[in-house]
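User: I'm curious whether this sequence folds into something compact or stays loose and floppy. Could you predict its structure so I can see for myself?
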Amino acid sequence: MREPTAMRSTAASCLRRAGIGLLLVAGLTACSAGAPTHSRAPASTPPGAGRIPVATVPGPTDQGSFDAAHAAQVLAPSVGLVIANQRTGGVSEGSGFVVASQNGNSYLLTNDHVIEGSRLVQVLMPDGQHATARVQGADALEDIAVLRVPGSLPVAQLADSTRVRVGQPVVAIGSPLGSQGFGSVTVGAISALHRTLNNVGGGPGESPESLADVLQTDAPINPGNSGGPLADGNGRVVGMNTAGSSGASGIGYAIPSRILQRIASALMQGRTPGHPYLGICYLSIADELAIDPDVHGYGVYVELALPGTPAQRAGIRTGDVIEAVDGVDLNNGQTLGGVLQLHDPGDTVSMTVLRGGAPVVLTVSLGDRPANGGGACPSRP
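Assistant: Here's the prediction. I'll summarize afterward.
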């Protein structure tokens, strides 16, 4: 099945089925064995920079209790315009939002592709404040960057994206027309969870990547919205807008807030984020059924556990069907990458696999993705 393609990608397409060449790094795929470095070294960290908190109360899940004006009023003061002067002479613009204000500095999240290749990054806030930003750190694999500016700015609160539901109303805030569209608000709903977005990033000389677990929304997301927040009716951020679809109208994508929290907290603390790595080649059950109508179970079909990987050490075998991780069933739209992306390298997870018609429970200690992507999966005839 063809997955959505990001309309912002400038690199050649490298679409592949999930099991062909897929090295499960929380579901992310390297399109070449010699993958580029995915995290730029974080800047020195001022004292006090810490983990970003997440709200535990979910936002309104139905239109009757949803107030887009209230959500915008709460969140808009925290959303700024990001202006990136490129080393090549051009200027790119996107959006960003403040997630922390500590010890005289404020930290904003934006997409890595907004500031990639820049020589100067500036942030302009709705109240007219503006400042030159320092790139605190960036992770190209997750398309997340953290900017640091002096001063104390209004802070947006993250919601728990694992509690978001299909059909839940949301607002997207950003600057699709630069300063002319400053603080534009669009309204829609979460139309799908746990989607895979291909052809992400891919700057000059680099291969595009895939985001393995994104939220899908019908709230309009246009160029300039990248890096802005997707929020619930309480004005709490459920995701960061990252792309619109080039193959369909009314579809946009956002990186879930729980992934933002994990990656951005590491960058704020001056650490290079880890990327959980399993090391299997697999197909979705839907793709495997097209090849073998007799396959049983749900989830993902393992074509190969790569040698020397966490998967092989845990005893995962060719022909296994991974049905659940830590008790979370891989059905109803839930994906293997979506579950694993919430973890750090070194975490231990329990996997339930169907083997020979019987369930087997395996304990897996997740690794960190190798710099070269981890190897290659064989093509299936």
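Summary: The first strand starts at residue 39 and ends at 40. The mean pLDDT is 82.
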